[in-house]
């Protein structure tokens, strides 16, 4: 055998060993937990044969606590570039079978290289996290490694899409890299995220809680909002990443892929003309409206289980990717509260950063009142959404279906926040507040002074108020609403509006950065 052939054989064998990560036993243990290995995950994620691996031979440099006894190639993370639906992405997948996927300085260098390449080449960066956190034996070097990763997350924010999938443990300060990225996915029952685990929680506060209750996928997808998606299993998580990417551009200078559609632009839906109940306090399902107007009824929802009184997600209108924000009258009457404001604000800012037009469907009775909301800073949190819409320069099309009351009307992409095209259905009520509340404020004295006729006075004044304000025409007369449209035509009108706005250009004053109310 020639020296060359021998060298090639050695290379093949070394690669083979590196691919086995922590070895067969640890792979079996990983499988026994219902988890896949880093390489199996990448195989599911990337187009077949597209993966270009880097730094397979990188080894840790730690000598503490007997670490010099073993120097596995790759050091617990698989990194590289591949394609998803033919479009390049940069990826890292932590390998729990090597030192529990814990982060060494060299692992951080591998991840940082990927982050740098993604940013330089304007392609999404995807992290598959499964790690015991900072590699304890490396001390401050491991912590510094996290710092390097965080800094890159921050610099890449708003330039390339960043996606984190949590597929095992993610604890301590390690949670902050996913938190800095645009979208976080978790897998039910096999992943968790928390700053301090159950044992520490118990010793510090006395609270007894298990991992799942403290930081499982369902908790973060529904209660904290930390996770945008909670997948049933790893396959679903990976598929969700692919679906998500199909709506996104590669970077902030790119536009999202056009998706050919056979759904007619001028398709009308007569059911929408019958959708709004006569009773303004009766709910209806906003999903029905969304599915009716988007291409092929296909809506990709983000943050589905968190703050369900507002709906956010992606869809296509005549093949173009659009972000939809919609109040949901069937949950808390579609009121804006702290969670809904935070959820929608983050989504609006993402769309604005990545050139994705916004379609806003409004039916909002106002902001939620009470001490819980005030103490939790509904003022600051509501301002986030207001700010996000006001600063957004992407095309903004708004349709008010029913209620658009008070500050919430203004917040939800009104004309004065540089809404481009604002439509209303004939059922719209654009006013400072609902009729009952308004009459109670304006005529409290009259009603009190004449208790015998209180009911009649109330009804008479309510009717007067409703005639004046419970319609879209006050706003339309002043140009705050561009047109009152028939509900059945909404798809066509939204698409035509988006087409008009396709070449929109709008600036914000030059500044170092904004001071969004955090
Ligand atoms: C070094 C680690 C490790 C770590 C796990 N391992 N975590 N090695 N540093 N942080 C090793 C284990 O020693 C073990 O090695 C192997 O990985 C598998 O771990 P097990 O404990 O056997 O697995 P399991 O029972 O599934 O438990 C997983 C675990 C547990 C819950 C993650 O390992 C654990 O609690 N690890 C420590 C978690 C932690 O506190 N990390 C620091 C967080 S603070 P062997 O060779 O025995 O198989 C942090 C700061 C970040 O990360 C700061 C950023 C600014």
Protein model, in words:
- With 518 residues, the chain is α/β, with parallel strands linked by helices.
- It folds into three domains: 3-245, Alpha-Beta Complex (2-enoyl-CoA Hydratase, Chain A, domain 1); 270-428 and 471-500, 2-enoyl-CoA Hydratase, Chain A, domain 1, CATH 3.90.226.10; 433-470, no CATH class.
- Helix content is 39%, strand content 17%.
- It has helices at 3-19, 24-32, 38-45, 105-121, 140-156, 176-180, 198-205, 211-215, 217-224, 234-245, 286-293, 338-353, 371-375, 378-391, 406-411, 435-442, 444-449, 454-469, 473-477, 490-500, and strands spanning 52-54, 77-84, 87-94, 125-129, 162-166, 169-171, 183-187, 192-194, 229-231, 299-302, 310-317, 320-327, 358-364, 396-405, 421-424, 429-431, 483-484.
- Strands 10, 11, 12, 13, 14, 15, 16 and 17 form an eight-stranded mixed beta sheet that branches. A seven-stranded mixed beta sheet has the order 1-2-3-4-5-7-9, with helices on both faces.
- Strand 4 (125-129), helix 5 (140-156) and strand 5 form a beta-alpha-beta unit.
- Helix 4 (105-121) runs parallel beside helix 5 (140-156).
- The termini are far apart.
- The mean pLDDT is 96.
- The structure holds hexanoyl-coenzyme A (HXC).
- Hexanoyl-coenzyme A is lined by residues 99-100, 102, 132-136, 143, 146, 169, 171-174.
